[in-house]
Specification:
The complex is a heterodimer. Chain A is α+β, with helices and mostly antiparallel strands. Chain A has three domains: 24-225, no CATH class; 231-323, no CATH class; 360-468, Immunoglobulins (Immunoglobulin-like, Sandwich), CATH 2.60.40.10. Chain A has 16 helices and 14 strands. In chain A, helix 2 runs antiparallel to helix 16. Chain A starts with 23 loop residues before the first helix and ends with a strand. The relative contact order of chain A is 0.10. By secondary structure, chain B is mainly alpha-helical. In chain B, helix 8 crosses helix 13, helix 9 packs across helix 10 and helix 9 (190-202) crosses helix 12. Classes of the chains: A alpha+beta, B mainly alpha. The A-B interface holds A 3-8, 10, 367, 369-370, 373-378, 381, 383, 411, 413-415, 418, 426-429, 431, 472 and B 2-3, 5-6, 8-10, 29, 115-116, 118-119, 121-122, 125-126, 141-145, 154, 156-159, 204, 206, 246, 249-251, 258, 303, 306-307.
């Protein structure tokens, strides 16, 4: 690319003052926003009855190493579910991007949602776009100080509530809020809140579209998931420009007939689509990396077309193929079907794994120092550590036994039978003593079994282990 | 490639060398500059609060302090330092207090209560493991089995020289033990020692021995001349009060018979013990360890060998 003489490699950011707009996509975005905020801000306050454990519906208890999600309790050993979940999110993103382009960016991304709210606060305090531009240009006076101050104060408040709410997911919400404001909350709660308040304020208030353009990795790699059939927001250049180009509504250019007669397109160059854009681009210049597909320019153009009584769709959802004069968008494409298949498999596997979560589990590890001990009656002893974890919400009686090793005895001190409290984890010592005809210097398989007390509907669990026999 | 005319658009520092050699002035981004200033301010505040500057052989102490209890039990307040913070955390940190409370619970419980309670047992196991590693492992090995048979008893097997009951184990740890067997090298002839060795090897069974020598050894074992039975008893099972080994079981605490390659080597190993005697000493720990620590170790050692 040729570099002209006046180009600087570093450019100051041009402030963007998006104009507000009404329309179907704006309504959809408000709907998504209300839903997302409702879930995010209210979920920590939702109570949930459990046999044991906290009464908070969603609680990530780091200290107790348990994640409570409604009726599901996730333990550290279930961490691979996180991998499954992340995979599902990734493929869902690929799938949606393949079909609808940057729908995530435009409607669901928290950067978009929070920026939306921050712009709305700006609008409430400072007024519509022209008022905000005027305010930003005028020298500092009482009005400017009050309005800007109030905007930033409200932003801070919004950012703080956002940060605090995040922290509530990690502890009992009602108690933590009281502790927080009386100075008794743990340090990480304050640190996290301050950090998230700062990032929310900076990202949604100040950085805004720069996050999408320069920081977001998804924004960078989403283009590889695009193809000719992916939905994009685009300007119907043929209709808007005709043969001569776009033109404002002049004296002889008021009706479509007049305009078509001289070859002027339907775009009246009002600039509304540019003014509403939160990333400050002109959609009429074609698909651009900055476009987050929020579709507000569609609403803007539709409003204008409606007021002129012309048909909608000068700016609308389209695809590269349609742009190039091809047929309509096809949904059933190999890539989309492939993503859908992987997505289905991943969701199915995760659902199966969650549904078949073991109610309690048993882990046995061999003590390797020493590997074996010779006992006074000539038997060989191996020692083991048994970890048992009751994931059920009620007490669990378990009896331990071994099999697979002939003439062997299990010694667990006083704990051959044990009663675990709800959600109790326990570490026990066990030793197996076996009389062997030949000391062969090999390992022999042995199975440790925990059997729930009679009357329980839980099935026994087994753990395969080895028994080491010395030579000679 | 950039056009030559680009230079016009860029600010220069205003210096010119050799007539036309100029230097670009590319100022740092504003946010970067302010972040840098903020770190400078942070550093100055840090110097005031925390130890910072060396001054001769001393240093500036800073305003922050740490309070902890020293080994004499006196409360000490000194300038902030990580060593003192660590001591304070170990004394009154959240986890330390939790551990202390549980330790008190265990200290207040009877041995029987501890052995019956899986939670207290788990706590004892993890805490005593550290105590054992610090104090006992040097001789008895980290897992309770010494590196080789001979100098130190194996705590993992079920043969107890001084008794494996809780009370006996606690006494052993508290008061220490003196494991002594006189040497018979000058009292008995080589043939007599050989006969005794064959007899001792015959007691647990399973070893190649000479029947004639066994009979002679048997007589000697129970005679006033050798007097083995004083400590090892008539049956050969040994007295806990003397720390005398049980000769009838399969565990060898001094002569490593199980590792011997041949029958002759086994006899030789037993003979060596009879000839040279034994002198083993376990120190007393009651002056070095607290009552709770001894209690935890007693339960731990009891558990290592399966207890009695």
């Amino acid at each position: 690319m040729a570099v002209s003489g006046d180009i600087q490699l570093y450019a100051q950011r041009q402030a963007i003052f998006p104009r507000s707009v009404k329309g179907r996509f704006r309504r959809l975005k408000w709907g998504v926003l209300v839903l997302a905020y409702g879930v995010y801000f209210l979920l920590p306050w939702l109570r949930w009855g459990r046999e044991s454990g906290p009464d908070q519906a969603v609680l990530f208890d780091l200290a107790g190493r348990k994640f409570y999600i409604f009726d599901l309790v996730v333990y550290p050993q279930d961490i691979f579910w996180l991998a499954g979940l992340l995979m599902i999110f990734a493929y869902l993103l690929f799938f949606v991007t393949g079909i609808a382009g940057r729908a995530f960016c435009g409607y669901f991304c928290f950067q978009t949602l929070w920026t939306d709210v921050f712009i709305f606060i700006e609008y409430l305090v400072q007024g519509e776009r022209p008022a905000r531009i005027r305010l930003s240009k005028q020298p500092v006076n009482a009005e400017k100080a009050v309005k800007l101050g109030l905007t930033h104060l409200l932003w801070m408040l919004m950012a703080f509530v956002t940060g605090l709410t995040f922290v509530l997911y990690w502890s009992d919400a009602s108690r933590l809020v009281v502790d927080f404001f009386t100075g008794r909350a743990p340090f990480p709660a304050y640190a996290t809140t301050v950090f998230l308040t700062a990032t929310t304020y900076v990202m949604a208030g100040i950085a805004r579209e720069q996050v999408c353009t320069y920081m977001c990795p998804y924004a960078r790699f989403q283009s590889v998931m695009f193809d000719k059939d992916t939905l994009i927001v685009s300007y119907d250049r043929a209709r808007g420009e005709e043969s001569v180009g776009r033109a404002r509504l002049g004296r002889d250019l008021k009706t479509r007939r007049q305009r078509q007669a001289v070859g002027v397109g339907d775009c009246i160059d009002c600039g509304y689509c540019v003014q509403v854009c939160p990333t400050g681009i002109d959609i009429r210049n074609g698909l651009q990396i900055q476009c987050i597909s929020c579709a507000l320019c569609i609403d803007a153009c539709d409003t204008i077309m409606d007021s002129l009584g012309w048909e909608r769709g000068l700016v609308g959802y389209s695809s590269q193929r349609v742009e190039d004069g091809g047929r309509r968008v096809r949904l059933l494409r190999p890539k989309v079907l492939g993503y859908a298949a992987v997505l289905l498999v991943a969701v199915g596997l995760l659902a199966w794994s969650v549904g078949n979560q073991a109610p309690y589990d048993l882990a046995v590890s061999q003590v390797r120092q020493p590997l074996f001990t010779r006992l006074s009656d000539g038997r060989i002893e191996n020692a083991y550590q048994i970890k048992i974890n009751n994931k059920t919400g009620h007490t669990l009686g378990l009896a331990f036994s071994i099999n697979g090793l002939p003439d062997a005895e299990l010694d667990m001190g006083h704990f051959r039978h044990i009663v675990l409290r709800p959600e109790q984890r326990l570490r026990l010592s066990a030793r197996i003593k076996a009389r062997l005809k030949v000391l062969d210097g090999r390992t022999h398989p042995v199975t440790v079994m925990a059997r729930p007390d009679p009357g329980s509907d839980l099935s026994p669990v087994r753990h395969a282990m080895v028994f080491y026999v010395p030579k000679g | 490639m950039a056009d030559q005319s680009q230079h016009k658009a860029v600010q220069t520092t205003g210096h010119a060398w050799d007539g036309d050699l100029q230097e670009f002035n590319n100022p740092l981004p504003r946010w970067w500059l302010w972040t840098f200033y903020a770190t400078v301010v942070f550093a100055i505040v840090y110097w005031i609060i925390y130890p910072a500057w060396p001054v001769g052989k001393n240093f500036t102490k800073g305003l922050a302090t740490t309070t902890f209890v020293n080994s004499d039990g006196r409360e000490v307040t000194m300038h902030w330092n990580t060593r003192a913070e660590f001591i304070r955390d170990m004394q009154s940190g959240e986890e330390a207090l939790k551990q202390k409370a549980y330790l008190e619970k265990v200290a207040g419980a009877s041995y029987e209560e501890i052995l019956d309670d899986p939670d207290m047992m788990a706590f004892t196991q993890s805490l005593a493991k550290v105590l054992f590693a610090d104090n006992c492992a040097a001789c008895h090995g980290l897992g309770g089995t010494p590196a080789e048979v001979g100098n130190f008893p194996n705590l993992r097997d079920d043969a107890w020289l001084w008794g494996g009951s809780i009370a006996r184990i606690e006494q052993t740890i508290r008061k220490g033990r003196l494991g002594y067997m006189p040497s018979f090298g000058k009292v008995l002839s080589n043939e007599e020692i050989e006969a005794l060795a064959h007899y001792v090897l015959s007691l647990p069974g399973g070893h190649d021995v000479d029947k004639g020598l066994v009979a002679r050894g048997n007589k000697l074992y129970h005679s006033e001349q050798a007097g083995c039975y004083y400590c090892h008893t008539n049956s050969g099972e040994g007295l806990y009060s003397q720390g005398a080994a049980d000769h009838t079981d399969q565990v060898w605490t001094v002569a490593d018979v199980n590792a011997a390659d041949s029958a002759a080597e086994k006899v030789e190993r037993v003979k060596s013990v009879i000839r040279n005697g034994i002198q083993r000493r376990m120190p007393a720990w009651e002056d070095r360890l607290g009552d709770e620590e001894i209690k935890l170790l007693t339960v731990y050692v009891h558990g290592l060998g399966g207890g009695q």
